[in-house]
Amino acid sequence: MVAQFGVLGVLAGTVGLAPTGWLAGVAFSIATWVFLTGALHRSGAESFGPANAVTLARCTLVGGVTALVADSFTTSVHVGALVGVAFVAWLMDGIDGQVARRTGTTTALGARFDGEVDSILALVLTVYLAQSLGGWVIAIGALRYAYVVAGWALPWLRGDLPRRQSRSAIAAALGFVLVVAASGLLPVAAAGVLVGLSLGVVSWSFGRDIRFLYRRRAVSIRTASASRPFIGVGQHS
């Protein structure tokens, strides 16, 4: 939380930060603290680890992006600062994974934390882009959370997925596309086409994972049905 307040303070002292941005940044910091505290307790981890420390640093930058995006709804924000912080946060993605592998501290918590930071950055950037490209853009950032909510009703969606390099590549490419679109360097029409293509690719990736989990569930049901003993007439007692 101290680091997050430091990022917010730097933004306030350089490009300015309205009360809306401060409120969003503080709320982001509290939510991060609650999430990490609960996750560490459930995982039984004895230490945070160097890789998670890198992810946390990236998370504080995303908190700064969140504050600037919140301000953009009430006042004009410094686009260069928003894009610059978002770009650094995107650029740091992957460093935590390298640190985890080199230090032998790869954990499920670290992978989950890294993925959540990616998802939040994508959601925040799409909220910002929705002001110029339209509300449909938010679907890109909302897909991940719709998937999670669906898993509450359909437990088979919470199954483990195979590691796929393409999934990581799509996530990395998506972050870059959203940062470029947010920069305003592209014409609005070109940015819309690029983001639209990204929505298609991300939807395909989610669809592939859902199909995999559904097929595995179907196989499990058939296997369980085949192994169930046959109970014929006269065998009920």
TrEMBL record:
<dbReference type="InterPro" id="IPR000462">
    <property type="entry name" value="CDP-OH_P_trans"/>
</dbReference>
<dbReference type="InterPro" id="IPR048254">
    <property type="entry name" value="CDP_ALCOHOL_P_TRANSF_CS"/>
</dbReference>
<keyword id="KW-0812">Transmembrane</keyword>
<dbReference type="GO" id="GO:0008654">
    <property type="term" value="P:phospholipid biosynthetic process"/>
</dbReference>
<keyword id="KW-0808">Transferase</keyword>
<dbReference type="GO" id="GO:0016020">
    <property type="term" value="C:membrane"/>
</dbReference>
<dbReference type="Pfam" id="PF01066">
    <property type="entry name" value="CDP-OH_P_transf"/>
</dbReference>
<keyword id="KW-1133">Transmembrane helix</keyword>
<feature type="transmembrane region" description="Helical">
    <location>
        <begin position="191"/>
        <end position="207"/>
    </location>
</feature>
<protein>
    <submittedName>
        <fullName>CDP-alcohol phosphatidyltransferase family protein</fullName>
    </submittedName>
</protein>
<feature type="transmembrane region" description="Helical">
    <location>
        <begin position="76"/>
        <end position="92"/>
    </location>
</feature>
<dbReference type="InterPro" id="IPR043130">
    <property type="entry name" value="CDP-OH_PTrfase_TM_dom"/>
</dbReference>
<keyword id="KW-0472">Membrane</keyword>
<comment type="similarity">
    <text>Belongs to the CDP-alcohol phosphatidyltransferase class-I family.</text>
</comment>
<dbReference type="GO" id="GO:0016780">
    <property type="term" value="F:phosphotransferase activity, for other substituted phosphate groups"/>
</dbReference>
